[in-house]
Specification:
172 residues, alpha/beta, 2 domains, 50% helix, N5-carboxyaminoimidazole ribonucleotide mutase, 5-(carboxyamino)imidazole ribonucleotide mutase activity
């Protein structure tokens, strides 16, 4: 396997069902990535070492998922110059609003790009868009992906217009 360009970290293995969507998207683009557990609260030294060593290992973007207090993305961003994308994980008590606010409300100087609650796929897409600035092959795949999305919507719009909404809904 090639050296990973994207590091995907999460505070707990319970976050993996959400975070796998980022890895699956990156895999579909052929972007080498690594996935691991790094808890800001339970493995602070591991988090520190991961964030400090990522750039030297060839990582160019970090995707960090966390729920609840959700310190992992911000703490990671405080320790590296790499872009960090935070994925708020939906929680049982506050439906992920706590996670979203914890990740989005970073102090000046420690930005974390934040996607929607459980938005790991968008984190993977955003990571590819960031990498596209440096990697032409990834840029081409992002452009193709965007064109395919546009084509899909235009096809659906035409079908809806041709059939009318009742027939369109009845076919599903």
């Amino acid at each position: 396997m090639k050296k990973p360009l994207v590091g995907i970290i999460m505070g707990s293995d319970s976050d993996l069902p959400v975070m796998k969507e980022a890895a699956e998207f990156l895999d579909s683009f052929g972007v080498p990535n690594e996935v691991t557990i790094v808890s800001a609260h339970r493995t602070a030294k591991r988090m520190y070492d991961y964030a400090k060593g990522a750039k030297k290992r060839g990582i160019e973007v970090i995707i960090a998922g966390a729920g609840g207090a959700a310190h992992l993305p911000g703490m990671t961003a405080s320790l590296t110059s790499l872009p960090v994308i935070g994925v708020p994980i939906k929680t049982k008590s506050l439906d992920g609003i706590d996670s979203l606010l914890s990740i989005a409300q970073m102090p000046p100087g420690v930005p974390v790009a934040t996607v929607a609650i459980n938005g790991a796929k968008n984190a993977g897409i955003l990571a590819c868009q960031i990498l596209a600035a440096k990697h032409p092959a990834i840029a081409k795949k992002v452009e193709k992906f965007k064109q395919e999305m546009e084509g899909s919507v235009l096809e659906k719009a035409q079908s809806l217009e041709d059939m009318g909404f009742n027939k369109y809904l009845a076919r599903k």
